[in-house]
Amino acid sequence: MKRNAQSSVFFLWTGGILICLLAVLLALILSSCGSGENVPITTPTVESAAPTDETGDPTGGDVGTGDPGSETSDPGTVPSAAPSTVLGETADAGQSYIDSLTFLGDSTTYGLWYYEVLTGGRNTEQVWTPASGTLTLSNYATATVEYPRPGSGNEISIQEAARQKQPEYLVITLGVNGVSFMDEETFKSCYTDLINNILEVSPNTKIICNSIYPNMPSYAYYSEINNDNITRANGWIQDVAAATGTRYADSCSVLKDESGALRAEYCNGDGLHLNADGFNAVLGYLRTHAYQ
User: For every residue of 11-72, which 3-state class applies, written as one string?
Assistant: First the structure.
């Protein structure tokens, strides 16, 4: 009788232990089926930018070299390479391209008309300069240019000239007067505002921000307007072109001698302004560095 009682107690304890184990197992199963709201989810970072070279421009890397099924393996998702701000060398665009350009500038642009290097000679309507020949970048908003050509006696604002003509291409050569007194912020601000004012009334015009031309140490005001200041300002102009989506023409490169000064054979004798050969060198550069 005593042995039967002990057996009953053993089975009771065994059953109790089994029930506890089953309860613990059931609790674990239920906890693993929760909503998971507090569980962090880690996702891979997808690099969507196109490969770039050291200049930051898209390199146009091979399309479809990604893993099969990845988004980058679809050619349609790869952005096309953006055109460079600086006009690179191209095939000769010809005289017809030069004839499509309008030139806005100061006395360093006036010579295009004076030396009759453009189609039409003194009758050309491709040159916008003030009657005085002086156009300082800081005065762009109030400055006037003779329109439709130098010598016409009709002066209007730069913006109004752009509104009336709607030029296909506009080559801006400005800033040489400003390098003597304008700091970087002011220079860039005025140049940017000039571009925006033109595009406001002539949005389809393709603007080329042309470099300031070098000068010679013999120039009377070389202490204020010299090649160190000009080189620095040309860097500012390139920055403005990049920021505004316009283009920069490094035409000054064909005018420099080994020291970086204006070649004597391209100067009219005053140490600053170009002669006919100098302007033809610039036009040749623009023909072989056409707007892209």
Answer: HHHHHHHHHHHHHHHHHHHHHCCCCCCCCCCCCCCCCCCCCECCCCCECCCCCCCCCCCCHH
Number of domains observed in the structure of the chain: 1
Residues 103, 112 contacting (CB under 8 angstroms):
yes
Q: pLDDT tens digits, the chain, 292 residues: what are they?
A: 444 444 454 555 555 555 555 544 444 433 333 333 332 322 232 222 233 333 333 333 222 223 333 333 333 333 334 569 999 999 999 999 999 999 999 999 999 999 999 999 999 999 999 998 889 999 999 999 999 999 999 999 999 999 999 999 999 999 999 999 999 999 999 999 999 999 999 999 999 999 999 999 999 999 999 999 999 999 999 999 999 999 999 999 999 999 999 999 999 999 999 999 999 999 999 999 999 8
Query: Sign of torsion, CA 281 84 161 230?
Result: negative
Q: Which domain holds residue 145?
A: 95-287
273 falls within a domain: yes
- Is residue 159 included in any domain, yes or no? yes
- Are 225 and 277 spatial neighbours (Cβ–Cβ below 8 Å)? no
> Within 13 Å of residue 218, how many CA atoms lie on the same side as its CB?
10
pTM: 0.72
Helix (H) or strand (E) holding 249: strand 247-249
